[in-house]
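This week, study the protein below.
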Amino acid sequence: MSLSQGFSDSSPISFAMQDPAQHPEKNSENSLPVESKADPPPSMPCVVYLASVEGQIQGRVVNLPGVTAKASSERDLMRQIVKQFKAQVAEIYAQGREPDWVDPLPEKQPGERKVFLPVHL
């Protein structure tokens, strides 16, 4: 069938392109949900300044005090940062408090670059 010929009503492609409300027999309770009623997991802003120092990558979270790490690769560094960040934020929330986010962010030091990580708890 060429594209110029179009699709018949019985064509699977034609059916997929039609309004599902017109085909209630295909819209059963076993269908996957189109949207979820559950709230999405909270996402926390993790702002990291990275620098290469003596053959290692070091990073510091600048919007939440106390989270720093060093590693031989950026991937390992980010894994450490995210683990510490999640642990610190989870502990703060477990105590019924809100994190003391640093705002405005401090200036980057020479050689540092900024990375933004949205972290889900």
About this structure: The first helix runs from residue 12 to 17. Confidence is low (pLDDT under 50) at residues 1-8, 13-17. Strands lie at 43-53, 56-61, 68-71, 113-120. Residues 67 and 83 are 10 Å apart (CA to CA).
